[in-house]
Amino acid sequence: MFTGIVQGIAIIEDIAAKPGLSTFAVRFPADKVGGVAIGASVAINGTCLTVTCQEGSTLHFDAMQETLRLTTLGDLKAGDPVNFERAARIGDEIGGHLLSGHIHTTAKVVEILRPENNVTLWFEVPEEWARYIFPKGYIAINGASLTIGEVRGNRFNVHLIPETLRATTFGSAQEGQRVNIEIDSQTQTIVDTLARLGYDRPTPTL
């Protein structure tokens, strides 16, 4: 499990593509890999991956074809920055909300607004996932636990303070970029339960 509190930015050093599998070599800040063991779970842009090898502060991860298809990991190239979070341990503070590291879908950055001292990002998700997105609800974007601002149809926004921009890759976000989305599990359970009882929420309209 993860908390949605991004622990820093790592850099993709190399990607070795094989049939049905890609191996990512990811360089972490040196002070963030202490105690890492082979088999440990690390969220890379919100996607839970398993450490297969360690070379100093560089960790290696394998991603199957299905993972590459369902997430934005297949878009990455050497030199790209990524958000990371090591798996939570019993007793850790849950500063965001509990995440599984299993990506539900991807979204596209459709607009970036820069009012004074913060940034507002607008995202567009596939229509079928809009039913789980509510104003002031939780959502994980590239592994970061964020609060939803406005919702318009299958679009929603989040408001980011300077510290979030500094500590994550959102500071370099660009329009048209794809991001990984993990829907809040409690919200999904409630919406799906109500739908089974006949209280289905229609897809929001503009």
UniProtKB/TrEMBL annotation:
CDD domains: Riboflavin_synthase_like. Gene3D superfamilies: 2.40.30.20. Its EC number is 2.5.1.9. The keyword Glycoprotein does not apply. GO terms for biological process: riboflavin biosynthetic process. It catalyses: 2 6,7-dimethyl-8-(1-D-ribityl)lumazine + H(+) = 5-amino-6-(D-ribitylamino)uracil + riboflavin. The keyword Protein biosynthesis does not apply. InterPro entries: ATP_synth_asu-like_sf, Lumazine-bd, Lumazine-bd_dom, Riboflavin_synthase-like_b-brl. Lumazine-binding repeats lie at residues 1-97, 98-194. SUPFAM superfamilies: Riboflavin synthase domain-like. One of its GO terms (molecular function) is riboflavin synthase activity. Pathway: Cofactor biosynthesis; riboflavin biosynthesis; riboflavin from 2-hydroxy-3-oxobutyl phosphate and 5-amino-6-(D-ribitylamino)uracil: step 2/2. Residues 1-97, 98-194 form the Lumazine-binding domain. Keywords: Repeat, Riboflavin biosynthesis, Transferase. Coiled coil: none annotated. Transmembrane segments: none annotated. Catalyzes the dismutation of two molecules of 6,7-dimethyl-8-ribityllumazine, resulting in the formation of riboflavin and 5-amino-6-(D-ribitylamino)uracil. This is Riboflavin synthase.
